[in-house]
Amino acid sequence: MTIKQAKPLLAVEGLSVEFGNSRVVDDLSFVVQPGKTVAIVGESGSGKSVTSLSIMRLADTMGAKFAAGRIVFGDRDLLKASQKEMRTIRGKEIAMIFQEPMTSLNPVFTIGDQICEVLMLHEKMGKAAAMAEARRLLDMVRLPDSEQLLKRYPHQLSGGMRQRVMIAMALACRPMLLIADEPTTALDVTIQAQILTIMRELQKDLGMGMVFITHDMGVVAEMADEVVVMWKGKKVEQGPVSQIFADPQHPYTRTLLAAVPRLGSMTGEEFPKRLPLTVLENDVPTVVGEERVQDTARYNDVPLLSVKDLFVRFDMRKTMLGKVTHRLSAVSKAGFDIYPGETLALVGESGSGKSTIGRTIQQLQTAHLGEISFNGRSYSAMSAADRFRMRQEVQYIFQDPFASLDPRKTVGFSIAEPINTHGLVSGGKAVRRRVDELLERVGLSSAHADRYPHEFSGGQRQRICIARALASDPKLIIADEALSALDVSIQAQIINLFMDLQAERGLAYLFISHDMAVVEKMSHRVAVLYLGQIMEMGSRRQIFETPRHAYTRRLLSAVPVADPSAERNVTLMEGEIPNPVRRVGDEPAILAHEEIDPGHFVAKSA
Amino acid sequence: MAGFLVKRFLQAIFVVIAITLLVSFAIRLTGDPAVTMFQGGGSMTEDDLARIRAALGTDKPFLVQYSDFLKGMLTLDFGRSFVGGTQVSTLIGKAVPATLMLAFVSMAVSIALSIPLGIMAATRKGKGVDQAIRIFSLIGLSFPNFWLATMLVLLFSITFNLLPPSGMGGIQSYIMPAFTMAVILTATNVRLVRTAMLDTLQSQYVMVARAKGLSESKVLYKHALRNCAIPLITYFGLQFGGLLGGIVVIERVFNWPGLGTLAFDAVAARDYPVLQAVITVLSLMIVGINLLVDIAYGLVDPRIRTE
């Protein structure tokens, strides 16, 4: 424990929170000193978000009961305060930032109105004074053109901009305590780096205490002074950040840290490696699984998939007579091959066109120009029936395992559907046997087939989605941010599952991701996308060890390092990705590529 | 906006032509007004009937009659009623305000009741208040409105002699017809508001609004309500159209001098000019309401405005 100072800003003492009969937070204690940051770390369902909502007493509206404990803020026990008293504290003395910037702002009010609301409520400002202050706040979070921004609506802003507006709004009344619940989880790494820097600087300026809730150990290393590790509603470990990383005591903390993908961990390795995992078995960290070099790519074969000069455009605005005036060039002249047994990663920020490429390969989207061939045969030369068969050979796994399974169908039905659609196995019993095999292959049991998606956790659902993708016995799986919604420990398990399946079946993956550390672990080759064009492409070692394009380097430098003692050398990207919607006629310049090393392509600057 | 209005106008013309064509054609299948007029009027020869038909203009081919009607419409001249010979435009001019007033009052009462009740039910989901509101809404839904109307008349006009049993007069005369209609409307609207509100209350921005320290009424009525406005406006718009159709029964029961009564009598007498005019006016109103709904979308939701 740290030395107790005279008076902490916030003291949570023996807090227990219950929903109905289930206790989601059990006997939790920690203190926040003024000007310091406490990170609460844990997986989904560990009770960390409920803790933050309890401090705000917003958990009440969700039906939470406080079974025991105190939350002392200043001189008051917040658990004894009435909602009316809490309203004078919320937004004024304790402010909160939420995870989803896209849904945190009310879509029907202007940015200015939403910030002014807090100022007029707590600071009793008039509208004009509040607007002037709101503008100052937007400048403070380094949003350009604040005057105009006040009049705009949330949907006109990107995720990163919205999260900055949220920060401005939270800091409007100079709160003494800021609670940030996964504030950067939904953002790209480069934007995350910007937001974290802003938060750190403002914390210093305003001297506020911070409770930072996250599951990302990299972010913890960067932000926290003190770390509280939660597991199944209980605090299992607490200590200064350096101590937690250097000498974790509790088995859960050790497994958590072991599962964190670390950028640079694969330096010097020619191929991806399937690594054993540390998991908790009867509360003892145990290393399971084998270590294996993932030398599965068959580069001497014909490329399984070949994409040439692909252009995908979306018409954004039309005149009354239907003439297109504005267009979004989502993908411009992208080209790459994927070999059997290979994992090619497509990395880039949101809006880079990586998902569009995946969707075009899966024929969910039509290409404007260009050619896609599978096993040497061009899509355009195929008959409709052959193109339909392609949907069997190529399978897609989506980011959100909650949204990609039909909630009204059993898991077994969803897995059997591709088998029946493509007539792969005939007879109800044979199909059922195949479904059982698939479920067992992805680490579930055949008894799960009759259950519905809501009965499973996020990680289990993603396993089900993998089983469904495998059901049609594909050659290529497009995994579109398939790991992004999962906790790190689950993520590590799924990575290994992907690798095992690749080794067994010679599967090729198009691995679409924004998480550079995961990409480094998994892929044979990497293509970096920016605004629909490939900036750099090469083997994993070429991209991660000798990145040549400035954008690749910035992307790599923005990744938080899960080591509190590491020197940070971030070349911060100022501003946002430019708006890709352009007037017709004003087409983006197509960059030429140069092969600087065998297989290592870099875009020349325009 | 201009383009949008032009599109809507062309759409309205198409709708009016389609509806009036269908109605004019259909009513001519139901019987001859010349015969209807003379029912019980003693003996009549084919010559008499022919003369009446010539006087009414119903001897001409259907398409000629219909195009005459369209031409008249452009100058707001709908011809004369077959019954009594009054100018149709005069009849319509009296009936439209009566119907619109009744419809607006009914809608206004229903909206004023269903929004707070729906929000109350949503915020206390599963609790006693919610259950009670749902049960009452179910009871309201299952009332036949003519029965409710008759009961109200029995109670308030005949037993207690508080309200006029029929006709249109002062505010008092609105109470029973508007209430009868509002009961049915509110029964569905409460459930709609409740569902829309439950969805919206799950949103992150509602939590954010609470985290700002706003009062519960601000959170609900400012932040949440405006976000449920789109489904509500859509439904209220559709409902208003349905209301204009359904008002016939209520107007009959309360002898309300509106479009419903006019249409009812016109159908009975095969009074083509009146019926055609009523249908035209009703369809114009419905097109107008839909236009207002579309404009309202843009006003409440900036995401639609910029499209």
TrEMBL record, chain A:
The keyword Translocase applies. GO terms for molecular function: ATP binding. Pfam families: ABC_tran, oligo_HPY. InterPro entries: AAA+_ATPase, ABC_transp_ATP-bind, ABC_transporter-like_ATP-bd, ABC_transporter-like_CS, Oligopep_ABC_C, P-loop_NTPase. Keywords: ATP-binding, Cell inner membrane, Cell membrane, Hydrolase, Membrane, Nucleotide-binding, Repeat, Translocase, Transport. Residues 10-257, 305-556 form the ABC transporter domain. The keyword Cell inner membrane applies. It is a peripheral membrane protein. It is an enzyme of class 7 (translocase). It catalyses: glutathione(out) + ATP + H2O = glutathione(in) + ADP + phosphate + H(+). Its EC number is 7.4.2.10. It is found in: Cell inner membrane. The complex is composed of two ATP-binding proteins (GsiA), two transmembrane proteins (GsiC and GsiD) and a solute-binding protein (GsiB). Belongs to the ABC transporter superfamily. Glutathione importer (TC 3.A.1.5.11) family. Part of the ABC transporter complex GsiABCD involved in glutathione import. Responsible for energy coupling to the transport system. This is Glutathione import ATP-binding protein GsiA. The lineage of its organism: Bacteria, Pseudomonadati, Pseudomonadota, Alphaproteobacteria, Hyphomicrobiales.
Automatic annotation (TrEMBL), chain B:
The chain crosses the membrane at residues 12-31, 100-123, 135-162, 174-193, 232-254, 274-300. It is a multi-pass membrane protein. Keywords: Cell membrane, Membrane, Transmembrane, Transmembrane helix, Transport. CDD domains: TM_PBP2. Its main location: membrane. PROSITE patterns: ABC_TM1. It comes from the Bacteria. Residues 96-293 form the ABC transmembrane type-1 domain. It is found in: Cell membrane. Belongs to the binding-protein-dependent transport system permease family. This is Peptide/nickel transport system permease protein. The lineage of its organism: Bacteria, Pseudomonadati, Pseudomonadota, Alphaproteobacteria, Hyphomicrobiales.
